Amino acid sequence: MKQLFDQKDSYSTFSEQFLRLSEDRFRLLVATVKNYAIFMMDTNGLILTWNEGAKKLKGYDDNEIIGKHFSVFYSEEERKNGKPEKELVEAVKNGQVEDEGWRIKKNGEKFWANVIITRMNDEKGNLIGFSKVTRDLTQSKIEEEKLRSAYKELKDAVEEKTADLAAALVARDEFLMIASHELKTPITSLKLRMQIGLRNLRPDVEKMPTKEELVKFYTQSLEQVESLVKLVDDLLEVSRLQSGQFSLVKQDINLSELIHSVFQRFSEDKKLKLKITPGVIVHADSYRMDQVISNLLSNAIKHAPLSEIEVELNVSPDHKRAFFSVKDSGPGIEKDMQDKIFQRFGRLGSYTHIGGMGLGLYMVKKIVEGHSGEITLMSASGQGATFIVSLPVKEFHL
Ligand SMILES: Nc1ncnc2c1ncn2[C@@H]1O[C@H](COP(=O)(O)OP(=O)(O)OP(=O)(O)O)[C@@H](O)[C@H]1O
Ligand SMILES: [Mg+2]
């Protein structure tokens, strides 16, 4: 084996040889390192050396890059902002500067780089240039970005769900308040009626109620019970609609006649205007269609009590669609509340003197959609409301 150093050499010759040898080895090491771009620059940032790693990472051959300014690796914007020069100034000042950012390859591709620029001094401490070590961190940057965006997605989803839950809790509390109020009203008056009735039947009361008075008493009590039954039915109906357990028994029905009969039921209490195109046959569940017509009519009567109400049924010129509308000239509904009223418990204001649980239009919309139909509302605050239900026509007999 070749001796590294001659025994006769003085200590200084030995250390010089050792230094030269290790410098050669170090140069060789740097030149062949493949995963790091390592090169030297002069005091102005002009490239003096180029290693394998630099070639691999940045794509330039030695002869293409040596003598060029290292700012070629920076984006145009960073060059304009003087970033390369600023980094050199910082390295001069602090001995070293470390940075991460996008850098540009010869083919224009970007890569995420970790860069360390180190000031190089001579024995007297004077600046003689810089070394620059660059690592490609694109892959870990991509992973980091993926992780960051997955985290953001998760965070957004959690926030959205939390907001939904909070809104659901508010809606539930509001519903409980409305439902208990609505149920309590008929129960209270029923209880009062029963108490009075019972008092009138006590043995110490001289005059017993007449048969007519008893009939009136039972009729009015029954009305209270019926309104209670309707409230409970609506609640059950809504939970069925909500859970998807709602079935439609469809057959060909004469919509013109159905509207007419519901209309007659309502016009006993209120004067309504009617304009119906006869002979419109739709394939529908007649019980549910009755609910749609009744709800829209009772809404107009209830929410626009002083207004004239117009009910119409028309067909499109191609006879493919029927349009059933209920129009009033009451208080109307503000534009930004118009979606809300079709939701469950979607009353305008949490409590009004007008009764109602805010379930009617929710049911109407679900039923209409179950018939491939649509419900639209034309209204503005103070300008009345027109609800229009459009349904596919099965047959039309003029
Ligand atoms: N014709 C109308 N004019 C003005 N506001 C209306 C009209 N129809 C409905 N609204 C508003 O829309 C809300 C929702 O109506 P919806 O029929 O769903 O509930 P409700 O009538 O209050 O109660 P329910 O129908 O459950 O007895 C009503 O509370 C009311 O504020
Ligand atoms: Mg209603």
Give a quick summary of the entry.
The chain is 47% helix and 21% strand. The protein is of the alpha+beta class and 398 residues long.
Describe, in plain words, how this protein is organized in 3D:
A 5-stranded mixed beta sheet has the order 6-8-9-11-10. A 4-stranded antiparallel beta sheet has the order 1-4-3-2, sandwiched between helices. It has a 3-stranded antiparallel beta sheet with strand order 5-7-12. It contains 10 helices and 12 strands. Helix content is 47%, strand content 21%. It has helices at residues 11-32, 52-58, 62-65, 76-80, 83-94, 138-200, 211-242, 255-267, 286-303, 360-369; strands at 36-41, 96-104, 110-121, 127-136, 251-254, 272-276, 280-284, 309-315, 321-328, 374-379, 385-392, 395-396. The protein has 3 domains: 11-136, Beta-Lactamase, CATH 3.30.450; 143-242, no CATH class; 251-396, Histidine kinase-like ATPase, C-terminal domain (Heat Shock Protein 90), CATH 3.30.565.10. It is of the alpha+beta class and 398 residues long. Helix 6 runs antiparallel to helix 7 and helix 8 (255-267) packs parallel to helix 9 (286-303). Bound molecules: adenosine-5'-triphosphate (ATP) and magnesium ion. Magnesium ion binds next to helix 9.
